[in-house]
Inverse folding.
């Protein structure tokens, strides 16, 4: 079973979180999602783990993953950091982007030769495209 | 003379751009700023360079730099990507954050052991702190 690291903007709005939840549900049919909490961030997390602990835990998960699936419609420092960290570690990167949201994707992501870019409107359609793109 | 790669959110608002311009002016006293266009993005850039060309040019500048100075108050996929790419390439990383803007910094940046974090309110003060922090 593939180990999937899912990345999304933690500080995205309610629309983003609903999209993330649907993506995570669909991804669970493809493999084990290591970061299912991204769709439903616990308000307690920041109180029990330091930033260093969150960073080290997430980077260890990322490096152990078979692929990174990053939702890149909303701007996020953490997601950009995770994409470049995955590429540096040799973990395949799939980025999902909703053009209908009207936000142009950063050239550093859209132009990165290691990034597989999937444009979509419905989360289930994105995961179906991802399945076809996987080796 | 130190070669400085300055990173900021290209799609930040007018407040960000004014801060970037002041940071770049102050950084020019410390070294050569390779990416001075971040403070004043040309509307023509997207028409003359492809995303791949922008990515490859910026990454080549980043890898040739003596340090990365990243303004991290606004969310940005590109800035997050540049921070992790610099760390992977062994380029020292200094992140500048304005707590007064009220946006909590991503744990992946605040908790990254390779990141030197400088909090500030005035750009000239941030660059003075940076000078003191440089080896």
């Amino acid at each position: 079973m593939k180990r999937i690291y899912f990345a999304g903007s933690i500080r995205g709005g309610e629309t983003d979180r609903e999209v993330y939840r649907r993506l995570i549900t669909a991804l669970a049919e493809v493999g084990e999602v290591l970061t299912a909490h991204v769709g439903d961030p616990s308000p307690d997390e920041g109180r029990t783990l330091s930033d260093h602990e969150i960073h080290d835990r997430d980077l260890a998960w990322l490096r152990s993953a078979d692929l990174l699936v990053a939702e890149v419609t909303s701007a996020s420092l953490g997601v950009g950091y995770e994409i470049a960290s995955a590429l540096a570690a040799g973990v395949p990167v799939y980025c999902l982007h909703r053009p209908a949201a009207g936000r142009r994707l950063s050239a550093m992501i859209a132009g990165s030769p290691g990034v597989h870019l999937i444009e979509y409107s419905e989360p289930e359609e994105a995961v179906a495209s991802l399945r076809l793109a996987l080796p």
